[in-house]
Structure formats: C-alpha cells, structure tokens
Amino acid sequence: MNKLVYWPLGICLLFSSCKKEAEKESNLFTLLSPEETGVHFQNTLNSDSELNILEYLYFYNGGGVAAGDINNDGLVDLFFTGNQVPNKLYLNKGNFQFEDISESAGITADGAWSTGVTFADVNGDGLLDIYVCQVAEIGKTPGSNKLYLNLGQNKFKESAEEYRVDFRGYSTHALFFDYDRDGDLDLYLLNHNVKSPEVFAQAEKRTQADPSGDKLFKNLLAEGKKGFVDVTESVGIYSSILGFGLGVAAEDFNGDGWLDLYVSNDFTENDYLYLNNQDGTFREALQELITSTSRYSMGNDAADLNGDGFPEIFTTDMLPEDPEIWMKSVGEDKAEVYQIKERFGYADQYVRNHLQLNRNGKGFSEIALFSEVFASDWSWSPLIFDFDNDGLMDIHVTNGITKRPNDLDFIQYSQDVDAKTPMEELRKKQIDMLPQLKIANFAWRNQGDLRFSNEAKSLGLNQESYSNGSTYADLDNDGDLDLIINNIDQPAFIYQNHSEKSGNHFLRINLESLPTNSFGIGSKVTLFAENRQFAQRISTSRGFQSGTSTTLVYGLGKVEKIDSIEVFWPEGEREIFPGSPSNQSLLLQKGKGRPAAFLPIQGSNQPTFPTIPWKHQEKNEVDFIKREYLAPKSFTQMGPALAVGDVNGDGLEDVYLGGARDQAGVVLLQQKNGEFLEAENPIFQQLAKAEDVVAEFADLNGDGFLDLFVGSGGNENPSGDLYNFDRIFLGDGQGHFRFSMNSLPPIGENTSTVAIADVDQDGDLDLFIGSSVVTGDYGANPKSSLLLNNGRGQFQDMTAYYFGQDVALEMINASRFSDLNGDGKPELILSGDWNALRVFTFENGKAVELSPKGLEFSAGWIQALEIADVDGNGKPDILVGNLGLNSKLKASREKPVWLYHHDFDGNGQADPLIFHHMGEKLVPFATRDDLIRQIPGIKKKHTSYAEYAQISKPEDLFPSEELQKARKLPAYEFRSGVYLQQEDGSFVFVAFPQELQLSPVGALAWEETSKTLALGGNSKDLRVDLGKSRNLSPTLLQWGAGSWDLIPNALSGQITPEIRVIRSISVQGKQYFLGAENNGSIYWIR
Amino acid sequence: MRTFKITLKAFFLVLLAFACQEKKDYSQAISDGRYFHQAQKRITEVIIHDIFSPPVAARIYSYSSLAAYEVAAATDPTHYASLMGQLNGSEPIQVTVPEGIYPPLSALAAYYQVGTALIFSEKMMQEHRDKVFAELKEKGIPDEVFEASLAFGKEIADHVIAYSKKDNYHQSRSFPKYTVVSDAGTWQPTPPAYMEAIEPHWNKIRTFVLDSAAQFKPLPPPPFSTDPNSEFFKLAKEVYEADINATKENKDIAMFWDCNPYKMNVKGHVMFAEKKITPGGHWMSIASIAAAGAGKDWKGTVEALALTGISLNEAFISCWDEKYRSKLIRPETYINQHIDENWVPLLQTPPFPEHTSGHSVASAASAYTLAQLFGDEFHLVDSSEVDYGLPIREFNSFTEAAKEAAISRFYGGIHYRPAIEYGVTQGTQVGELIWKKISTKPDQVAMKK
Q: Are A534 and A582 in contact (CB under 8 A)?
C-alpha cells in the first residue's frame, strides 16, 4: 500500500526536477552579476524628513539608462542616471566586461537629482553626446539639464549652458529628432509639473504656456550656428502646467513620412499626439486618432508590432495583474469623477496599459485588453523588441514602486487619529505605513495574432525588483538584444540574451549619414523578405527616461535571406539597398542606396456620394449611472432607427430615419439621380417626443403600400409610458404616412427590435417586438410581445397565449424571423444580454422552443443578429454581433461571466451584480466602493479592502439563502461570429476574425446578391470600469473557403463611429450599405 | 490603537480599585454617565472609521441614545417620560420591567445593541462592549441579574431598532445619486477628491419631531451673480478676504470646529484620508461633558444624549432639505472661477451644496436643547477635540459655543455669511420645536397631550 502511494510521488519528483532543468536551460536571458560585468550601479534612495514622497511626488520614479557607442569601437556603452547617487558611464570592453569611466570621462557627480538620459550627436562630429535631465530644487544641489559633449578619447565636456539647453525645472526625459528635416537633431524636452495635480483645471489651460512646461529646442547646426534655440511657442506644442510628462516617442504615426510625437502624461491631462504639419509646426490630434489612453500614463514606446509598417503605441499605467492586489487597489475613476473630468474637457482615460494598434495611419484601435497586456502593476518602461529573434516583436515592461500609494486600505483606513505625534514624525509614519510589494517585471511574448503572454519566468526575467528605466542593446554583438534595467535599492540588471542558441536568424544594421545627423537617428529601416516586412526606427529615446542604441537588431525567425532594405532618412529621402543573407551586420551609408520616391499613404479619394441630409442628435436627460449605479451599460442612447424600402413604388429604395427624443424622423425618397429628398410628413414632427430606436417598412394593412413600424425605447421612461409606445404609420404609396393610433396595443416597454412575419399563417404580417431592458432595472426580465395582425393592420397582444403566462424571454436586443429548419414556416430567433440564441417555432397556436444543438453555450451580450446562408449549404446560418474580446470581462464555457440579479439588501431596488472569474476565483466585477454605495451592508461583512480582496465566490459576499433567490444569468461566449447550420440542423460556431472582436458589434447586414456581410459597432454605453469601446471600423466581409475575407472599404481604419444599424440599399442599380451612427451621421459603407 | 490602550489602562485601574472590596455591592457600578460617555466615544470612533457622513452620523447617535433613554423611562417612569409615542411614527413601548434587573446595565446594553446595528465595523463595538461588560461583572453584578438586565436591554433595543427601520434610510441607499448640473451658480464637486454630493435625498428620512423636512425653510441665498458689484460676488470676496487676512484666533476657531469626518490628503499619487469627529459627534461629546459637569446620574445623562441626538438628527434633515433645494455653489468653486484660481480654503470643502451651513444648524439646535436642559449660562470646558490634536476651548454658554461653531465655517472658507446666519436661525427653530412638541418630563407630556 505504502509503495503504491510513494511510487507516483517519486515519478512526480522525477518529472519536476526534469522540468526544472529544462526550464533553466530554456531561460533565454541570464542575469549577470555586478561582479561578472563590473556594473555596480545601484540607484539607492534615502527617504528623510526633507526629501520624500510627500515632498516630491516623483520620489520613487527612479533613474534611466541609455545605450550608445561613445567611442565608435562597435561596442555599445551604458549610461545610468541616479537620483541621490552619481550618474555612471560604463565603457563596454567586450565580453560583457564594463569599466566605470565616469570620473575620467568628466561625468561629474554634481549632487543633483537626475532623471532621463539620451545619446545623440548634437554637434554633428560623428560622436555620440549625452544629454542628462535633472530636476531643480530637489536633491543636494539644484539640478539643471546637462549636455556632455563628446570630445573623443572617452572625454566629455559639460556644455549645456553654451548650447542653451541648460533648462532648470523638472525634466523627465529628452528626445532628439529632426522634426524640420534640416539635417540636424532637435530636442523635445519632456518636463513634469509638481503642483497639485489633484486639482482639476479646465483642459483649455493646456494652451497657456508656462516656463515649467514641455519645450522644443531647434538645433541651429544646419544653419551653421552652435547650440539650440527655444521654439516652443511657435511650433504648436503644449507647454502648460497641466503636463506631467513621463514618456515621449517620435514616430511617423500617420504615414506621411514626417516624424510625429507621442507624449504620455501622468494624472488628469490627456496624452498628446502631435502630427507634424511638414512646415516646422505640429498639430495636437490625439482625439482625432485615439479614443482612449492610459490615465496615469507613464513611459511609452512606439514600434511596429504586427509587421504592417505602421507604428503601434504602448503606454504603461498601474493596474495590478494579481486579482487580489487589483481588488484592493485604486481602480477606475468613480463614475461621477469621470464625468467631472469630461466636463473639464479631458479625453477618455482608463487605468490600464494601452496598446494602440495603428490602422494604416488613419487611427488607432486600442487593443490592450484583447492582447492581454493591460495590467502589469505600477509600470514604468515599456520596450517593444524581439526577445528571441523569432521575427515577432515582444513587449517588456519594468514595474514596481517602493511604496504603494494606491493601496485602498492605506488611503481609507490607515490614518488613526493621532494628536500626540509631531507633524514631521507623523509624515514619516505615514510614509512608513505605505505598503511595500516587490514584484517581477513583465515580459510579454508575442503569440502571433496580437496575443501576448507573460513569460518572464521561463525567459529568466522574473527577479523581483523595483525597476524603472530600461534599455535593450546587443552588448556582445552576437545578434540578439540584451536587456539593461535601472533598479531602486538594488544593483542594475544586465541580462544576457542567448537567442543565438535558438537557431533564429538576425540582421544588425548601422546607418551613416554625414554630416550632421551622423548616426541617422530618426531613420526608418524596413527589411523585406518572404512577403514580410520588418520595420524599425532608430530612436535614442524609448521606454521611461531611457534610450536605445543606434544599432538596429532584427529578429528574423527562419528567414535566411533579406530581399531588399529600404531606408527612409529623416531628411525625407528614401533609398533602397540590396538584400543580404541574414546573420550579418550591415552599415548602410546615405547616398549609397538606390533613390526611390516616397509614396505617402493616400487619403481615400472616393468619388462623392449622395449625402443623407440628416444627423442623429442624441438627447440624454437621464444619467443612468446615477439611477443604476451597478449596471454595466446604459440603454439611454440606442438610436437612430433606420428602415429601407420603396415607399412610393418608383423602383427606388427609400429610407426612414428615426430620431432621438425631440428629433423628428424623416422619410427620404431616392431620386433617379441617386439623391435623397425628404417627403413631407408633418406627423413625424408632432410625435418627435419619442425616442425612435428601431424601424421597419412592411405592408401591415394589406393595401399594397409599405407601412412603417417605429419602435421606441431609451430606458428613460417607466414601463407603460406614453413616450415608450411603439407606433404604426400607414403609407399612401406616395411617400406620405399617417399615424394609425389604434393599431398597436399600448405596451410601452423599451423596444429594441422588431421582427415581422406571418406567424399564424393567415396571410398577414405579424410582429414580434423585443425589449432590451426594464427601465431602471438592468437584468430584470422585460416584457417582449408577439402581436398578431387582424389583417387590417390592427394588432393584438398574443404573447401569453403563444408563449404561456410565465414566459421568460429575458433581455432581448435582436430578433429575426427566418425559416431556419426549412419547414416552410418562419422561426423566431432572438437574443440579447445574458441571453442565448433562442429559436422558437410556431405550431398549433403555440410557440415551441427548439433548442437546436450547438447553441447551448451561445449566451453572451448579443446585440445584433442576421440570418443568411453564409456557407451556401442551403441551410440558413445565424450571424451574431456580440461584446467581443477587447474587454475586462472574459467568458468561456468553463468560466462564464454571471449576472446575479436580485434585491440583495431588500431595499426595493434589485441589484445587478456581475461576477467574473479572475484566475480560479469568481469575484464581483464591481469594486468594493461601488458595491457599498448600493449595498452598504457589505461593509459589515468585509471591513477592509484586504478582506474584500480575499473573496473567491459569491457566497463570500452574501448568505446562500439570498443567493438562491437571485436570478443567475450566464454569459459563455463574447465573440462575434457565425453559427453555421449543419446538415443535421445543429450549429457550429465560427468566430469573426480577431480584428472584428476589438469592440462590440452592434449592427449586421447581409446582402444576398454579392454575398457580402456589413458589420459595424463600437459602444459608448459601457460603464467607466469597462470603458467605452471604439476600436472597430465599419467592415465588409465575404465568406470564402471556410473563413472570412475582409474587403477594404472607404471607412476602413476609421474607428470612431458608433454604428447602431446597417441596412443594404440599392442606389442606381448598385448594392451598398447604409450605416447609422448614434448621435452622428449616416455613412455609406462601400 | 491608542484609545484601546487607554481603555485597557482604565480597565486595570478599575480592577485594582475593586479588587480589595469584599462586599460586592454593585448598585453603584454604574451611577453616573461615565459608561455612556465611553460607549459614545467608541461609537464616535467607529463612525469615523467607517466614514459615515454627518447626517448619517446624527442618525446613529440619535437612535442609540434613544434606546438607552427608553430604558431609563421604562424603569423610572415617575421621573422620565418615554419618547416612544411622542416621536413621529413611533408607538409607545409596552413592556413590563422584570424583577431583578440592573437598569443602567440594561440601558448600556440597549445602547450598544442599537449602535452596533447602525454601523459597519461591528467587531469594534462588540469588543468594546465585551470589555465593559467584563469590567462590570467584576464589580459583582450577579450572573442572573446580568442576564436579566441584558435581556431587558435587548427588548427595548429591539423596539427602537424596529422603529428606526421605518425611517426610509434603508430605501434611501438606492435612491438616485446626485446629478451635477452645469447651470451657473450650482454646486460642483470640489477638490481634491471631487466626491459626489452626499445624501441628496436626506429630506426623505422620517423626522422625529418636524412635520416635514421643509418645516423651517431658511431664507434663500442671495441671487447668484458673477458681477463684481453684486451682493453674491461681495459675499464670496468676503470669504476670500477673511481667509487672506485671517488672524491666528480665526484660524484656531476654524480648525477647532472643522469636524470633517473625511479629509482627503493628496500629494501626487499618495492619498490618504484623515478623519475627525462629525459636527454631531462634537455636540454629542459636549452633551456628555455638560451632563458630567452638571453632576447628572446615568438617567440624566442619557436624557441629555437622547435629546441632543434628536436635535442633531432634525437639524441635519432640515439643513439637507435646503442644501438640495438651493444647490448653491461652494466658495472654493466660485472663488477659483471668478476671483483667484489658485485659492484653497483653510478647511477642505465638504462634499455637498453650500446653503445652509450644516454645522450652524446642528450647533444651534443642540445648543438650544442643552440650554434647556442645563441652563444656557454654563461654563463649558470643551475637550471634545483633544484626542484629535486640538486644544481645549472654553465657553460661557452653549449659545456662545454654537455661535463660534457657526462662524468657524466662514473663517474656514467653506461658507458664505448668509449660510451661517440663516443656518443659526434654522437650527434654533428646530430646537424650539423639539421642546414644544416633545418632553421627557411626565407631567409636561400630559400637558402636551
């Protein structure tokens, strides 16, 4: 018996020891000790009564590190900045041996507090100079920025004053780039403020320049003069007290060939995206191209992650990854604070890392939640580079703060009343009480398909530390990138990369560009091979307070030969150099390549198209979050309604557009020339009070003319309210409609969808009207209705008769009638939030739920449905628009997301509580603060955030007898896609391509002749801690050979419109799609 | 932690004192109001820890003191009239006082029970109660008397809790949150925490005495204007200048009466809440100090606490009704927008509209009640804030203290003058009504009926 027990244990041991061995060997990176390398730098901090986190808000921001070859010996040297320790310059002597030459080189220990460091040849002598940022008034001696001019022979001379860049203030970092294409390197100086960032100022204040703000210095070298001139005020950059700049990157974000800038700002201020106007000025255009940013944006990096040649942007923030830490740390702004910031004029910001995916220069989709790179705790320096030379760019992020100010127990409960302790001692006590947690940095390896997984452990990068600045460089010239990290109170990390053993190929490239920008800083170098491109840009400022070397290292995977190399020089010239076998070091000299014209990306010069002279104007009188504090989304802005049909029998398809509250609908008649003209319909003006959310043309009274059904919703009026009544308008065949008052029974729910078919097979059209939500009670079961036609366009509510008295159709966002099973009768297909795809057939006056195989786990947040035989097997398939995957909520069959709907505290209002899995725990999505606001009794159960963070199941929150009373609704599947009907009537799900999972899909339309699917979505309705999601362009796709092909259209890359409905329409004999945007325009998708 | 130590110390001292006594005569175990002061102090600590806002704190004080008082009234009906039956929506408590109970222990038990039911950190209360009970046991209260006393205390407490449950508080937790409107002159959230306006529906809480929350509508604030010649602008300018020219005495007064239960300190990414007693907590403490100073026994003490609690509760309901009627912009917002964008008031602006000043209404109402109980001429040595790092202040009357509390909000830069003046009137009206409508004196109750 004993033997039997021990035997498997022995096996386990054997296996685990094997695994350990294997792991060790597979460690791509080895941490070299200071003794091995000679780099003994350690950024030691000493918090005392004079200088500490309460005196200087960035006390724990740490130092930077830059890599550059100062003596052109082919070995990359390192410069570390210290806050309270001297800066150090280490000469690389090869074989990972470094020598501290700071003293002999003239890098003086000036006693000032240093921050960022950047290498650049500012005087065009072919030697890298060093620019060090410092802060004034902090530290032993007042700081001012330093420019160490390289004199050769490893000697430097501090010349900041002489070059007029001896800025005194609070500098974070410097970036050298040639913004005006005159051949020399100009300086963007990133500064931070120190005054009360917690007090919100009007956002317009960013236009008021302040001496402490960011600066742009133009290099006069090309003009034959020495030094720089401050051009901040004339170039269009913000230089105000709102800036808390913690990261700056130069890239060509819009593909016009000119260097733009991205600046990440801490606290309330937006990040800035400056587009280069090509005339020596910039235009800040963040909100035109980006829908949301990190809130406490720290460092950033910009580089091409997906091989399309356009740079992505990664910004870091402070969201913890560990669920337990997450639940006890400061999260998103409370809804009301979020609204205040909006009123002050700030853009959308969320507390998480942001990964901005560049959509061909037209805009960015923010994909960090999809890519699983949104949380890496208190993070500083992100670096995008290829860890293992597999040809896919990975992301490394340094993190850690010596004292964690975002601990909610510290914030709320730490300060006991203490009258006896003197203030100074009290402050020390407060600082001592700040929690400490040392964790490992994050190393996200690219899984392809823009998915990442943190493999810090297996990569050997998981040492615990408080890490700040970081850089990569091929320190031993073996064709892979080694990693260097500046730590607080711990020796700097130097990781040797062993990718050379992987068999993956590489290419190293240096540029030479005489005379003034000798290393070609700012150049973009693209390798072409095997129909792929590998694009990188030389920048000596990356991450946080740090900079990378001027040698580009490309991981090439199995690529053995490069076909050609394109160099796009910062002055604007484009040259093509011949290819080369991989595993080489190349020096490309300007002027030696084949000149080629630069082709900037073209703005789509589509021929003008008939405009639809109507805009949806949303009017929100109810702030849903004030009423339903825990509801995940609002239903107050659901329109516009859009219907298409030939209402005047001229063979041309006309349009109805239904407006929001106080906005009248219109019927637009298509003219022969393709224009649309409004038909007189005064009745719409009279009934403008209702919010129209759905509309459909159909001949409801059997007179041969199209009539109009308009459904109202908006989650503003209570059930049964007059303004919620749906309406039928009877058409006269001329484009005119009259209101048919008694056609519909007075129901008055929040209508979300209407489906029309002859349900009872009596030759007239009947209606199914779905309702999304009970006003003010998200999660409750609203009343949806089956209305039967008496043949004269008058309808009777037959829901109870067909579905039974107690039917629970639940929340319905979309419905369709279609003969799914080929029995010649229409089935009703419906779905909605927390609702599966449900199929009903109608037999003998009863609705019978069919529950076909394959739909059992279809429940999600389905917002749109379309029925079409996509794969051409003769069986209709079900197309589904869902929440998507770019969300904090992650659902699967094994780990569904749950809605518990119940009045947990018996106060008369039901509480919609979402529980989701974090690791193995099933925890509330709402924060403790939000829950307490709605259900104060919870505070009795968990008196601290730390206790709350221990919750692992709903039973830890509520007594089981209360939980038993709750309605529990699962969501298993959040992907949008198609359920393909099989020969046997069962369904198999095929998700849409990944890029269509980046935001909720709210509209689907299938056009049968061209077999094209049009899709649109985005959502501003999600609560703050889910975040608005606007990452989806209106898209056209076609099914081919078992998968979807995306068809480029005029709106590709345009990510912001929130499309509620799409309809196919024929204009002058051609099929197009119309997409209607909430609170916006009507778009042609073609 | 520190208060805990003090309690422990007191515990051991008491143990020492009683250890030598042979005869266990427990009749004087609870004679004066000391145990109630202690229990109230504890409740104050829990209110601070749990971050209850001033109106909610007043509610907690009022029901817990009422429970203790009802034991006094039940066990000594010749001297004390039950308030149950007099207060809005209350039913007279029909109980038979059992034999062999020790009434002050019942009262104390009732106080702890109701207090614990109304706060979150129950453990903090229970630990305190258990320690006090252990101490009392040491004083020789026989087990059967102890049990019976607790049981009776519970009976009364259950009545008061049942009464409290019908005051709409529970329902009000899910009433819509306040929606900020951008109309000029209306309240905006204030730095640094930009908290939402608290308790916008507090006027829907059942009153004890007032016929409605709006019974004493104060005068409205002067019309809003940004015109430098307007009265409103001048009022704001006055607040601003008072701060700029504040004397040390003015500052001391402002700090002494700050009574901010939740002051958020922010330095960059570092934030922490510093907490003090609420205005209600301060006046409950004054009531304790006054009862002790007047040499009241436990019954007289709980009478003072119950009436002060009721006065505070009514004051906050009345005041909050006006706050969300006028929704007036705070001086900090106005001054930042129109006078000096960098100005920060001496006191942190609390998160609710300006008019009228809660401290003024609450202080005036409590002072009226205390003056009725103890006579207005009363040498008050107010040590309520000593534990919170502030000195003792002395007053010659409750009215003087209330007036200083009221004007302190002007010195603190968080109220315009009318909010203070009208607030004092409002609070006095509340106090007067309470004394007109209810009484703890059996003979007067009969007269009022």
A: no
Q: List CB contacts of A331: < 8 A, sequence separation 6 or more.
A: A319, A351, A927, A1025
Taking 3-state DSSP, the helix, strand and coil percentages for chain B, each rounded to the nearest 5, stand at 55, 5, 35
Of B45, B189, B274, the CB nearest to A336: B189
Residue B272 has its nearest CB partner, among A430, A626, A908, at A430
B122, closest residue in chain A (CA to CA): A940
Sites in chain A below the pLDDT cut of 50: 1-25
What pLDDT shows up at residue A21?
39
* Dihedral over alpha carbons A519, A524, A528, A533 (to 10 degrees): 140
CA dihedral (A1051, A1056, A1062, A1065) in degrees, to 10, reads -30
Q: Is the pLDDT of residue B3 over 50?
A: no
- Provide CB contacts within 8 A for A1040, sequence distance 6+: none
pLDDT of residue A141: 83
Q: Which residue has the tokens 């345009």?
A: A1054
CB spacing of A411 vs B272 below 8 angstroms:
yes
The answer to whether A880 and A813 are in contact (CB under 8 A) is no
- The DSSP output letter for B389 is T
A448 forms bridges with which residues in the sheet? none
What does the buried/exposed string (b/e) look like for A1012-1028 if buried means 16 or more CB atoms within 10 Å of the residue's CB?
A: bbbbbbbbbbbbbbbbb
Strand-by-strand arrangement of the A155-158 sheet: A112-120, A129-139, A146-152, A155-158
Q: What is the ipTM of this complex?
A: 0.86
Torsions phi, psi for B305 (to 5 deg): -65, -45
Chain B residues in contact with A193 (beta carbon < 8 A): none
B7 to A917, B10, B11, B46, B112: CA distances (angstroms)? 44, 5, 6, 15, 16
* A140, A112 contact by CB (below 8 A): yes
What pLDDT was estimated at residue B445? 85
Write down the pLDDT at residue B21.
45
Average pLDDT of the residues in B23-50: 91
Residue-level pLDDT at B2: 41
User: Testing the interface with B: which of A193, A199, A409 to mutate, by most B Cβ within 10 A?
Assistant: A199
The identity of residue A854, as a single letter, is G
Record the pTM.
0.93
pLDDT above 90 covers a percentage of chain B that reads 86
Q: Distance between CA A412 and CA A290 in Å, rounded?
A: 34
Across the interface, do A418 and B389 touch by the CB < 8 Å criterion? yes
**Given CB atoms, is B166 within the 8 Å cutoff of chain A?**
no
- 3-state DSSP call for residue A361? coil
DSSP string, A855-872: -TT--EE--EEEEE-SSS
Cα angle A1017, A1021, A1027 (rounded to 5 degrees) comes to: 95
Residue A625: the pLDDT is 79
Q: Does the CA dihedral B303-B307-B308-B309 come out positive or negative?
A: positive
Say how far apart CA A944 and CA A328 lie, in whole Å: 9
Alpha helices in B20-121 (DSSP H): 34-50, 54-75, 103-118
Chain B nearest CA to A413, separation (Å): 7
For residue A485, give the nearest of A502, A498, A468 by alpha carbon.
Answer: A468
| Partner residue facing A907 (CB), from B2, B50, B174 | B174
Convert the pLDDT of each residue in B359-402 to its tens digit. Answer: 999 999 999 999 999 999 999 999 998 888 889 999 999 999 99
Strand order in the sheet with A245-251: A245-251, A260-265, A272-276, A282-284
Residue indicated by tokens 């509610």: B59
Closest Cα partner for A214 from A237, A193, A239? A239
Phi, psi angles (nearest 5°) of residue B378? -150, 125
| Pair of tokens at residue A201 | 């100022």
